[in-house]
Amino acid sequence: MDMDGKMVLVTGSTDGVGRYVAKRLALAGAKVSSHGRDRERARTLEEEIKREGGRAPEFYWADLSSRGETIMLAREIQRGCKRLDVLVNNAGIGSLNGGPERQTSEDGHELRFAVNYLAGFALTCYLLGRLKAAAPARIVNVASLGQHPIDFDDVMLTKNYSGSRAYAQSKLAQIMFTIDLAEELNGTGVTVNALHPATYMDTTMVRAGGITPISTVEQGGEAILHLVCGDDVAAKSGLFFNGMNEARANPQAYDAAARQRLRKLSLDLTGLSAAYG
Predict the structure, then answer these.
(1) Are 243 and 197 in contact (CB under 8 A)?
(2) Given 20, 167, 254, 276, which residue is catalytic?
């Protein structure tokens, strides 16, 4: 895909791998909408891109732990973009960001499930019209090899909580959504895939977990860019990738009944049941 003039939204793009992807796409001529919670980092990203001759991105501030702010972001994108060629759901928090204790979102949901999964689910649903209008278009969900089956009797992990399980559950939910959405979008010209970009990249999220990085941001960024604009994946949808290669996710991802339960729960929790139920 030639990215010159394409409209792209990258969430979580003021730091880490999202920043790398946003910069690369802007330097390739894309009209990038960046998102984050740090205005100063957004400013330095804009300066870097302009200094290297690229088109400065338009920055959108939003806290994706809040359903209301996620909806606000979607509406601002809708107002600013009549079409959207690529959506990269990259924003997320790690297993220990903010400490090892269980945390909840503004809406009362387990925080990792809210930020890593529900926000991307809602944002994608709101922006599907813009993506279909731009077809052929692509959605990329940045997930992880770290996946844990969802316990539908305690999705919010009120018992025996651990940050690593919460993170892994949210990432599997992303992949399950990817598979379901691909079926829904079949024939529309919009593809959706998920990936584990690289293991323990040198990012704020990884360092916050006390983990020594073993991969570079560039390695992970190139894997994301492969799904964004690679010609060899143009017709592929509903898949999970480990880096550049197709891979198998946790078995629950391929359980249609489990995906249906997750979809119903997600629509209820995001208030989208009436529109998409």
Answers:
(1) yes
(2) 167
